[in-house]
Amino acid sequence: MTGFQASYQFSPLLDVFTWVVNRWENETTEDPPEDNNRAKSIGGRIGFTPLQGASLLNFGVGGFWGPEQDDSNAHARWIADADLTWSASSLLVASEFVYGGESGVSFRRRGTPFAADGLDNADVHWFGLYILAHYDVAPWLGLSLRYGAFRDDEGARTGVAQTLQSFTIVPIVHLSRLIPELRPRGVTYARTRHPIDWVDLRLEYRFGHSNRTVFSDVAPGLPITEATNGAHVVTAQFVVNY
User: Fold this and answer.
1) pLDDT tens digits, 86-127
2) Measured at the alpha carbon of residue 1, what is the angle toward residues 38 and 190, in degrees to the nearest 5?
3) CA-CA distance, 28 to 109, in Å (whole number)?
């Protein structure tokens, strides 16, 4: 996003964020990246921190609104959002719930392998959530478990009317903790007590599931003749925070 953001901490219990941006979902393949219309998108969040001290509890409500269709300053896309984080000692729990919609959505009828009727000037809605738990088993080793779900009944966000789910496990090796000269940075992730380390190695396994057969390993540009409703993804990340 390109734009302006402002925040203010009214008290230890209350914080507010607001922003005005060109887009909230830009194409990364354009060179240079360009906006798709002349309208701006606005958003904000109000956060509350009722528990402070050895443990920290923060929850917030917010939203986002703005026209996002090509060459159109009408038909706004919007979301309403609620989030929660709780951290204490070596444990972190976080979750987020999103309900969104958009007006004036149109797309053509689709055929094999994901046949569906087209939409014309329709109002569409979707719902998503995630729940994450992270625990530091040792000063140098952490483990994250995450569940996510996304319900796209009209297929407006994913192209297929479906309910997606994901189950993820992520061992995290804090490599910098194993080197005495590289101490933790003394800062934490936003709205948590969890410290940010200099260097992390993350090994992630994610299983994705859909109630439709939408996953295929066919190369791009080739016809998709068969698919399944599950997919396995393994990634490795070497992260340096500075």
Assistant:
1) 999 889 999 999 999 998 888 887 776 677 777 788 899 999
2) 145
3) 27
Of 20-29, 59-68, 103-112, the least confident: 20-29
Phi/psi for 176 (5° steps) reads -65, -25
Q: Cα angle at 167 between 161 and 173, to 5 degrees?
A: 140
Q: What is the pLDDT of residue 31?
A: 60
Q: Residues 115, 118, 120, CA angle at the centre, nearest 5°?
A: 170
Indicate the DSSP class of residue 218: P
Sheet with 14-21, strands from edge to edge, namely 3-11, 14-21, 41-51, 55-67, 76-88, 91-107, 119-138, 141-152, 162-174, 199-210, 230-240
Most confident of 28-42, 137-151, 169-183: 137-151
* DSSP 8-state class, residue 119: E
- In the block, tokens 């940075």 appear at 185
Nearest to 144 by CA among 225, 90, 182: 90
Distance between CA 237 and CA 242 in Å, rounded?
Answer: 16
Note the pTM of the prediction, 2 decimals.
Answer: 0.87
Of 132, 13, 24, 35, the C-alpha closest to 79 is: 24
Of 86, 184, 85, 79, which Cα lies nearest the Cα of 124?
79
Residue with tokens 């941006």: 21
The CB density around residue 56, as the number of other CB atoms within 10 Å, is 19
